[in-house]
Design a protein that fits this description.
With 430 residues, this protein is an alpha/beta fold. It has two domains: 127 residues, Urease, subunit C, domain 1 (Roll); 293 residues, TIM Barrel. It contains 16 helices and 16 strands. Helix 3 crosses helix 4. The structure holds zinc ion. Zinc ion (ZN) binds next to strand 5.
Length: 430
């Protein structure tokens, strides 16, 4: 078995900084040893260099930082072409941009070409795992899974379920999307590193019958995820109240249909009551916080203090195309700004946790990825600490780790990603 060794500054988190502020490792001159796509060892170069086999060549990255690949817990692959479209609020955005863009995915050529671009763009931004929305078309999920499989990515996705409130070409037929979802689960769930997520877009675009069908599918396939939106925008919440008058709140719509459990990821959760936080927490579901999207679409400022108080699991998502960047660094920057406006100071450790190990936990993949624990899959990024003249100048004077990480998350973006590795294989190089 061939051995690979990477020498650089190395950083990774071992636990949630909220539980243990010291649960991280940083090696100023570090070495990451990979065998058969898995982490064999991580530590200081001085200590580990002598354990290397004579035949192992060391890849030395001077002025670079190696860390675990980023994990994006909410993103739409068919929306890459509407990123940066001028719009108003969520419900208008969907009608004006999202639905017309998604209609194009009835063409399998569009699915394949966009999936290819999307996966490349994830890797170019150092994102090695993601939870992804397709469109209602079976071919959209098929194309994305096929492309992710080519790169051997640990990725979860699903075809969208919708049977009302959208153009006819985007609605599931008489069987409510059951057959296509079942076929996709059978074909892709657990294949290689891939997983399936049952993906109702959000309560307004599914009838109670479709949500019930989704709940039955989830019960029949307990290991699949559920991925949807909740409490993003005030008009949306009001609309859900009108459509589901028998439900006590937005979360109740999903609870009633068996869609809220420890494999459920609810995107946004910007406007949640204490009761909703308690129930999400008790059910073990998670919230994907999407700050660039929330600010761009004008949805609001998420309340991290409240989520922490109720021990609600959470991590970060880009929410492309409502979100404005594929970069998890820029997403961390936006999360910091949102917290500032909520009187909470988000530390660099907390932000990097949410973008790596915390994201892995939210997606139930922390057994495999999220940090460099022995035996984990070697998904990692190499960041260029001299990516731009300003970054080089600013990082040079950041003497302590936390200051270095903070400057990276505020100034950094895709330009910092020098190389991305999936299972120890280089899949992107600047
Ligand atoms: Zn979304």
């Amino acid at each position: 078995m061939r051995q690979y060794a990477y020498r650089a500054q190395i950083f990774h988190l071992l636990d949630d900084p909220q539980h243990d502020a010291e649960a991280f490792q940083y090696f100023k001159d570090g070495l990451l040893i990979v065998e058969d796509g898995h982490v064999k060892a991580v530590g200081s170069f001085r200590r580990l260099a002598k354990t290397l086999r004579a035949s192992t060549k060391i890849n030395h990255y001077k002025n670079h930082l190696i860390m675990p690949g980023f994990i994006d817990t909410h993103i739409h692959f068919p929306q890459v072409d509407i990123i940066g479209s001028y719009g108003r609020q969520l419900l208008d955005w969907l009608q004006d941009y999202t639905f017309p863009a998604e209609l194009a995915f009835k063409d399998s050529k569009v699915c394949v070409e966009t999936a290819r671009f999307f996966v490349k763009e994830l890797l170019r931004n150092g994102t090695t795992s993601a939870l992804v929305f397709g469109t209602v078309h079976e071919g959209s999920a098929d194309a994305l899974f096929a492309e992710a499989q080519k790169k051997n990515m640990r990725l979860i996705a699903g075809k969208v379920l919708m049977d009302r409130g959208a153009p006819k070409g985007l609605l599931d037929g008489k069987d409510l999307g059951r057959a296509a979802t079942k076929r996709l689960i059978k074909k892709w769930h657990g294949r290689g590193r891939l997983g399936y997520a049952i993906t109702p877009r959000f309560a307004p675009t599914s009838t109670p019958e479709q949500l019930a069908m989704a709940g039955v599918l989830k019960a029949e396939n307990p290991s699949v995820h559920v991925h949807t939106h909740m409490c993003e925008n005030k008009d949306e919440i009001k609309y859900v109240g009108e459509l589901f008058p028998d439900s006590t709140d937005y979360l109740d719509v999903y609870e009633k249909h068996g869609l809220v459990g420890d494999k459920t990821v609810l995107a946004h959760g910007v406007h949640m009551s204490a009761s909703m936080c308690k129930r999400v927490s008790a059910n073990g579901a998670a919230i994907s916080l999407c700050p660039t999207s929330n600010m761009f679409i004008g949805s609001g400022l998420f309340n991290l203090s409240q989520l922490r108080r109720h021990k609600v699991r959470h991590a970060l998502g880009t929410d492309i195309g409502g979100g404005t960047s594929f970069s998890m660094l820029m997403t961390m920057n936006a999360a910091y700004s949102v917290c500032q406006l909520r009187d909470l100071s988000l530390s660099s450790m907390d932000a990097f946790y949410m973008a790596t190990l915390g994201g892995a936990k939210v997606l139930g993949m922390d057994k495999y990825v999220g940090n460099f624990e022995l035996g984990k899959e070697a998904d990692f990024v190499v960041m260029d600490l001299k990516a731009t003249p300003l970054i080089a100048r600013r990082l040079k004077i950041a003497k302590r780790l936390k200051a270095l990480l903070f400057a990276i998350m505020i100034l950094g973006d895709d330009r910092m990603i020098a190389e991305t590795f999936v299972m120890g294989r280089s899949v992107y190089k600047k």
